[in-house]
Amino acid sequence: MPKADNMLAVLWLLKSRGRVTAHQLAEELEVHVRTIYRCIDALCVSGVPIVSETGRDGGYYIPDRVKLEPLFFDAEEQKALVHAAAFAREAGYPFESALDRALSKIKRYATPDQLERLERHETRLEVIQQPSTASRIPVLTELELCIERQFSLEIIYRTGYDGSRTKRLMDPYGLVHWKGKWYVVGYCHLREEIRSFRVDRIGGLARIGNEFERPPHFSARDFLLDSLLPDSDPEPDGSSLVSVIIEGNPQALDDLCGHWLMGRALAERTEHRAHFRLDELNLYTQLPYYLLTFGGKIRIIEPEELRTCLVEITASLLDHHRS
Asked: Which residue segment(s) compose the domain that 104 sits in?
């Protein structure tokens, strides 16, 4: 039996049977008594409060006041934690120091072979995301605390690039990291409805003493996606959706179909053609600017209005930069 399995078995026997001698543990697990001593030493080093008493009625035991939830990670679980930490750091996770301490504990009690493997995993999977600036860490930390304790917040929020700053009272329900940005979702008392706010546009925040009740089973992630993405069929007959057909290079179409908006709107796809169904708001506001990034690799087959819109935007940009 591997050492970790022996340690876990010893731990559970101590928890379930109370005072047990080393010889009783050895007989139960069918191992040499020296193996039991090594396991108990390793458990003590890892922080398990095992008490040893000598004498006729002596033995090993764990005090009743101690509640243990032992965790032993196998190689795959250790690798998963190291890789998950890489994603969290690049996302601007506000509790990076606590994450580093947790990984340090895993490394501290790893064998030399395990430590070498962990360090290899750390350097062979790397993540590139849009980094969050250090100035946002205190804001994210305070938001997470208020979400956990259900405290209302007063925030100073800027709408858009040139928008005015407004004071908002909100009940924060959850944090979401999406497309390199952090969002806090909650009830906005100014608008009297649930809203999402970009964390990088929060100019200041202050905790309010009053507490709130979070709606049961509420998902900040689902709310954010529903607010950003159009309904796939707003009307029962789909009459409000516009048919968009685009032809072009297969790889360019792959990238187009992988876009957060276009992937949801995709109705049919062949190697050189993609058919989408989009609402008019997204069709004539967001989509034309995104299509410009593909240059001559795609062609708009229909609707004609989208092609005209693209031409007008291109001409406007040309005049802007010439002037």
From this structure: 75-124
